Input
Amino acid sequence: MANDPRIRIGVNTFLFASPFLTESCNLFPLFKSLGAQGVEIALENRGDVDADRTFEALQKAELHCIAVCGAYGPRRDLRGSADDQKTALSYMRDCIDACVALGAKLFVGPHYSVVGRAGAETVDAKREQWKLVIGHLREICKYAADRGVTLGVEPLNRFETDFININEDAKRLCEDVGAANIGVHIDLFHAGIEERNLPLSIIETGDRLVHVHAADNYRGAPGTGTFDWQGIRDALELVKYRGWVVLETFTPNVEIIAKAAAIWRDFEPSNEILARKGLTYLHALFSS
Output
């Protein structure tokens, strides 16, 4: 994979801001200076960003909008109450519209349930929830396809969801939806908890893989923990992955997301140092 320009390196805005607002666009030059080639914007609510001003700021900083990242907080649950399902679907359409306005081709995240819903469900309940989510995702995929957007479905660890924990289940979900514009979004932190073997799980996901979030085993900067990054790189090469690898980690000073992700300590002295370490390592990894 030496000097392969098809693997590009980006950063998720959650590392620096929550919510990400129009005025947060002043961070773009910093992202560029830290080594990001693109920005994944976590859109928490409709209207948080002015799309025209954000797009202009991205262009000025010579950055791409990689994707819009979904934030599935309270009431955004495709397997919840009728009202929660309606709220989630409305939010997903808003995010897809934001993708179009910002020039992003991907809408990524746990597109099935509110984050934090994790409990023991009966086999029958799981079966019914699966059917419900499949039906909703077919509808959303049609909306996204008409706008040139692909969905990336992200498995989460067992402490954050009971619905999709492993890449195999995310792949099966995509196959059951049956749309051409849906694939698996692997978050290596979550996968590191749930998968038996990280590189093998990537290989088994194969051409269904559409997006990658990168952090090390303890959710710090890639290359500072115990993950087999060379094995991960080689697995991505084997499946001919040519998308983005996006640094997604957090610090306690972004309080809302830190609480949601259980980030109780600083991994580095500052989020700038954390980002620079992670982005620098990823660039070196994919150019070696």
